[in-house]
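Review session, final week

We close the course with one last complete record, chosen because it touches almost every idea we covered. It is Phage protein, a protein from Photobacterium halotolerans with 401 residues. Go through it on your own first, then we will talk.
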Amino acid sequence: MNQRPEVDFVSLMQDEGLPVTEAAIEVELKTAVVAAGSKVSNDSDMSPFWRWVRAAVVTPVHWLVNVLLATHVLPNMFVATASRWALELKAWELNLTPKAAVKAQGEITLTKANPNDASTIAQGAVIQTAPIDGSVYQLRVTAETVIPAGTGSGRVPVEASEAGAAFNLPAGYYNLLPQEIPGIVSAENEPDWLTRLGANEETDEELALRCQNAFTSSGSWHIDDAYRSIIASVAGIRSDNIFFENTGHIQPGTATAFILMDVGPTPTAVISQLNEHIMNQGYHGHGDVLTCQAIPDLPVTMTVSAVLVKNLTPEQTSAALAEVESRIRAAFRETAAHAEMSRARPQSRFSVSKLASEIHQAMSTVESVKIWVNGLVQEDISAAIEQPRLTSLSVESEGDS
């Protein structure tokens, strides 16, 4: 969701009375020539003199106004509209460093075939997901690990094969072994498996939001924006995904920063690192007691009945229903797939009719969608400081039992 304004600087200059068209520039030029005491005796379109003036003066001025000024100089004077190179210069002025891409790290639970045997997991072993919108996400074991005899399962350290927030998937998504691991029958990422967030390289919009926030966090008192700036410096946390709740009392638990992830739940390890950084390493104001927490969940149960186009094969029907489910799960921030789907977020209304409309627009195989939320048909989801999360999702084609 882009929060930066789109500005038409040509229209703004025109509204302020500046000549932006070749005709207007020519009028201004003729007015200036006459005001200087010169007499223009032949100003027809076929005049060799004015044809030369247009080529030598009017056309270059038009380029300077409409190209250089309107698309390069003016936009890059403002954080709201600046291009990357200008944003990085402005970030330097504010002592901000653009955040680089980061690979997710965590621990995967492996279950042994025989608990009485010790199992050695080689460095580089791969655990992956089923395809999600055509992409498979892989984790690699980072160090040779022994799961000792006498235990049915054990956890191994892993790192994503690539950098990106899309790898911060919720529990249960990493469950496939593309190559057999001796003595291991299954793999799973359990709840709170992440120890380090995966993150994309900071986008222009994200960097602009942090630059904007830096202006309001520069005071001597720790207001929300000061803490927002501290928390958003962590890779994988957007400044607009931080929500504050304040009671005004100076005691533990009365000021809270709730952290939302673009993909998946907020890991406990990240919350612990933030609280250690703010409260124990001195990054808090005088007398402040601020606690970082994962955004609370708003449980949502959803049942979907889809009417599909006629004459689909069983395989096509299965694929269509799977895509509907994948799109809904993405809308509730389980995955980074289907970027065109609107995401549910705190302090907002999530429109179920819009969800159905976006499924229609993206899928020609779907003729109609009816959605029940917590047992009520087409019921919108209104969230306070909480993130709507799917606790149950059932997708069937109309007529299925």
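Two points worth writing down before the exam:
The chain has a mean pLDDT of 89.
Residues 46 and 177 are 77 Å apart (CA to CA).
Good luck, everyone.
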